[in-house]
Specification:
mainly alpha; 4 helices; elongated
Length: about 150
């Protein structure tokens, strides 16, 4: 007999994965933005987008390991190297989305398209970068779930 009762939202697999993905993303964001802040403070002469790219690169490995083992439980489906390459590719797209959206927020915060006198204040860069995160989460989740960590038929 087929049940006509709907599965509660919190029991749906995709919702649980999205929550786990968000927790992993939060930890990776702390790593990313913490390193970004440190680089902006230690190396103020380096363009903000270089520091953002470096901090992103360090955080993406944390995200890959946790999403592979905990969120999507994708061990043994493809080689780790293949999955990491796919994950990195989708996250590089996410990085470019984040950088572009961060730039839009920086223009809004400073009123300047180009910052000829150097980087905007570190606090503005960090807030703009954090404001861009929710805009990129959807892309990263969909790409991870339906491409990088999708179950393959055997």
């Amino acid at each position: 007999m087929i049940s006509t009762q709907a599965t509660p939202l919190h029991q749906r697999r995709v919702v649980r994965q999205l929550v786990k993905f968000s927790v992993v993303g939060a930890s990776s964001t702390v790593i990313d933005k913490g390193i970004l802040w440190l680089l902006l403070w230690l190396l103020p002469q380096v363009p903000w987008w270089v520091s953002a790219s470096v901090s992103f690169s360090l955080a993406v490995t944390n995200s890959f390991v946790w999403n592979r083992t905990w969120t999507f439980r994708a061990r043994g489906m493809r080689s780790v190297r293949a999955q990491y390459s796919m994950f990195l590719a989708t996250n590089v797209v996410g990085l470019f989305l984040n950088l572009a959206i961060t730039k839009v927020f920086l223009i809004a915060f400073t009123g300047e398209i180009r910052h000829l006198a150097g980087n905007p204040r570190a606090s503005r860069v960090l807030v703009a970068s954090l404001a861009a995160v929710p805009c990129v989460v959807f892309w990263n989740f969909v790409a991870s779930k339906y491409w990088t960590f999708r179950r393959t038929g055997r």
